[in-house]
Amino acid sequence: MSAPHSAGAGPEAPHREPPPEQIEAIRLRHPWRTVFAVVLAIIAALFIYDTAVNRPVYNWAEVGKYLFDVRILSGAGYALQLTVYSMVIAIVLGVAVAVMRQSPNPVVKAVAWLYLWLFRGTPVYVQLTFWGLIPTIYKSIELGIPFTEAVVSLNTRDLLSYFTLAVIGLALNEAAYMAEIVRAGLLSVDKGQDEAATALGLGWWHTMTRVILPQAMRVIIPPTGNEVISMLKTTSLVTAVPFTLDLYGRARDISAVTYQPVPMLIVASIWYLLVTSILMVGQYFLEKHFAKGVARRPDVMKPTVATEAIGVVTAEEAAQHPTYPSRGGESIVPPHERPGGGGA
């Protein structure tokens, strides 16, 4: 039998469970991962040492000699021009073909499908070779009324240079892939967005530029960046036109004189790697810009006071601690004697 409380003593303090002990998480060890990483590091070190010391065919002195050669720098500039011009034309034409693919007109849709079938189904090298033969196939371009004497006759060789033919060949091939990329981006936007814009009274142009495209760009940008990088490397195929002033063409011309193709291939590869690295950085920031607000979760609201089980208090407990009325009219006392809780 417990002893009675002495006169004037306060009510017995409520029983509290001791705080749980902190869990000490032990990290799971993966010894084979460490072994595999060490083996890879050793192989990489041996390869670098062998390349730098035991392979005179690389001729690193020759690489350094021609790395900033004027002809190589000029070739890199032509490669960038081919990439920019071809991608601009390909993006514009790809958007048009993507819209044609979604047209309700069966003829327009069939023309777009035929374009994609032709340019995606044949190798780009074959297409570039064909474009190089255009001046031979079509010796002149004549303008006038059909079945009558031509009003204007233009020599194809004078009108279309090999550089122009290379841009046309690259752009038309790339437009087929850009059309599918743009179409996938447009289809990724929920149909309700279009319906909501129409309900708000927005026209087609404002719906596309302010509602659909900003959301579709999140899907369009990553593969488009990959296509730009791929286009830069594809410019090495314009020798099929033939256009030989690009980066690879200039490196090949120099190696034909020095009889050392390997160092010149390394020089061209270094410049391709440099430019593609810059393009990858730009692609990263573009993706980050158009991904704003996507998959973002709101910050978790942290309680301002320590939480624990609460209950209805008696009149004696209410006299010792501040209370708050509940919906049922009963008094609730918050946690106390803990960080963030009420005072004792």
Brief summary of the model shown:
The protein has 344 residues and is mainly α.
Q: What oligomeric state do these chains adopt?
A: single chain
Order of secondary-structure elements: HHHHHHEEHHHHHHHEE
| Rg over C-alpha atoms, rounded to the nearest angstrom | 36 Å
The CATH class of the largest domain is identified as: Mainly Alpha
Q: Which regions have little confidence, pLDDT < 50, spanning 5+ residues?
A: 338-344
The percent of residues in helical segments reads 55-70%
- For the record, give the distance between the C-alpha atoms at the N and C termini, rounded to a whole number: 30 Å
Count of the domains = 3
* Strand count: 4
Task: Calculate the mean pLDDT score and round it.
Answer: 82
Q: Strand-residue fraction? A: under 5%
Largest sheet: 2 strands, antiparallel
Examine the secondary-structure arrangement and name the CATH architecture of the largest domain.
Orthogonal Bundle
Tell me the CATH topology of the largest domain: MetI-like fold
- Strands of the widest sheet, in order across it, are 1-2
- State the helix count: 13
Shape: flat
CATH homologous superfamily heading of the largest domain: MetI-like
Structural class: mainly alpha
Protein name: Amino acid ABC transporter permease
Subcellular location: Cell membrane
Pfam families: BPD_transp_1 (PF00528)
Main location: membrane
